[in-house]
Design a protein that fits this description.
Elements: H1 5-31, E1 41-42, E2 58-62, E3 65-73, E4 76-78, E5 81-85, E6 89-95, E7 101-105, E8 111-114, E9 118-125, E10 130-135, E11 148-154
Parallel strand pairs: 3-6, 5-11
Antiparallel strand pairs: 1-9, 2-3, 3-4, 6-9, 7-8, 7-10, 10-11
Bound molecules: dinuclear copper ion.
Residues 75, 101, 136, 138-140, 144, 147 line the site of dinuclear copper ion (CUA).
Length: 158
């Protein structure tokens, strides 16, 4: 059977496109280490309150980096109000003791699922001081729409 030259060209082009897409996934995940922020460590959802990583939720500065530790549970974030400085790297670390929640800082690039059994970790930097709304954007039960928190980004330290 003779395959027309144009047919051959487009079969080759399709294979190249598929190879480029698969290659992009392989390179970003294995060579660059880019992956979704929702599964960086495992944790036992039943012992979050005594696990040293989540026993004291809140904001702390470790080695010049700001770290916000937050527990997302039905139907609130603990703590419900946080304050971080502008212009500095901020890392959010979250987990859930019950069901899947979401963590979105509205108007920023902070957006992650929070899955029981795993630690989610997102790093960013806030350039604009002000008040930001944190919402759960994964449906998590009858109180889902009330699950929110407040983030205050304070002026950069002089
Ligand atoms: Cu938590 Cu929706």
């Amino acid at each position: 059977m003779k395959v027309h030259v144009y047919e051959k060209f487009w079969m080759g082009a399709a294979l190249l496109i598929i190879a480029a897409f698969v290659g992009a996934v392989v390179i970003t995940s294995y060579a660059l280490g880019i992956h979704p922020p929702s599964h960086v460590e495992t944790i036992d959802p039943a012992t979050i309150d005594t696990d040293p990583r989540f026993a004291h939720p809140g904001v702390e500065t470790v080695g010049g980096r700001v770290r916000a530790t937050i527990v997302a549970r039905m139907w609130s974030f603990d703590p419900a109000e946080l304050s971080v400085p502008a212009g500095q790297p901020v890392t959010f670390r979250l987990t859930s003791p019950d069901v899947v929640h979401g963590f979105e800082v509205v108007g920023t690039n902070v957006n992650s699922m929070v899955v029981p059994g795993y630690v989610s970790q997102v790093s960013t930097r806030f350039d604009h001081p002000g008040e930001y709304l944190i919402v759960c954007h994964e449906y998590c039960g009858v109180g889902h729409h009330t699950m929110a928190a407040k983030l205050t980004v304070t002026e950069k330290a002089p």
